[in-house]
Design goal:
CATH superfamily of the largest domain: Ribosomal Protein L25, Chain P
Shape: elongated
Oligomer: single chain
Strand order of the largest sheet: 1-3-2-6-5-4
Distance between the termini: 85 Å
Structural class: alpha+beta
CATH class of the largest domain: Mainly Beta
Number of strands: 12
Largest sheet: 6 strands, mixed, barrel
Number of helices: 3
CATH topology of the largest domain: Ribosomal Protein L25, Chain P
Number of domains: 2
Low-confidence stretches: 201-210
Strand content: 35-45%
Order of helices and strands: EHEEHEEEEEEEEEH
Mean pLDDT: 88
Radius of gyration: 26 Å
Length: 210
């Protein structure tokens, strides 16, 4: 198991629109730490630090939050809200987790080798972009990879074909369609000569009517 990534957070002593605005103007993202059976803890985290940790460790990594009151929490990122106008990080829900208790998490499905489909005039028809899985927090992958390099027209990928990883399961129907491979539609463009023939035919028809 990889070591949990550390991240410092500030406990928000005052919860108000004015204080939230002040924190955001100073480069913070507001958020909360959710705890099962306990009150949530309002916090704020430096935007640049959060982006760096997320980039280096992935969306489903376990983070060890160290707050300004010297408390620490093992958490996962539950949801990230974006501001409606600027599409920047606005609010984060952290979920406190136990390394011995299973969690349910949506994991992205990543399709590899799609560039190899184009020369064969094939396209990937996605039915699912993520899958809900269950497992210990430290075993949750950042993505479920599907290699479509060797796929041909008519091939289908079902939930049963996904390699979820050790200790990871899903409650979804194994016969649920994840994606299929189809033939790309070829659009035939008219040549200049064909366009001229159509134009001439139209003129003849018009003169005949006159």
């Amino acid at each position: 198991m990889a070591k949990a990534a550390g991240l410092n957070v500030e406990v928000r002593k005052e919860v108000s629109k004015k204080e939230n605005k002040r924190l955001q103007n100073n480069g913070y993202i507001i958020g909360v730490i959710n705890q099962k059976g306990l009150d949530s803890i309002p916090v704020a985290v430096k935007k640049d630090e959060f982006r760096r940790v997320l980039k280096e460790n992935g969306r489903n990594a376990i983070l060890k939050l160290q707050d300004s009151d010297k408390n620490s929490y093992d958490v996962m990122v539950k949801t990230i809200e974006l501001s409606p106008m600027k599409f920047e990080y606005y609010h984060i829900d952290f979920q406190k987790v136990s390394l011995t208790e299973e969690v349910k998490v949506d994991v992205a499905i990543r399709f590899l080798g799609t560039d190899f489909l184009k020369p064969k005039r094939l396209i990937l028809n996605r039915q699912m972009d993520s899958i809900l899985v269950t497992g210990l927090p430290q075993d949750i992958p950042d993505s479920i990879d599907v290699d479509v390099t060797e796929k041909e027209s008519g091939d289908s990928i079902f939930v049963s074909d996904l390699v979820l990883g050790k200790g990871i399961t899903t409650d979804l129907d194994q016969e649920l369609l994840v994606a299929s491979i189809g033939e790309a539609k070829v659009v035939v463009e008219e040549t200049e000569e064909e366009e001229e023939q159509v134009l001439v035919a139209g003129e003849v028809e018009q003169s005949t009517e006159e």
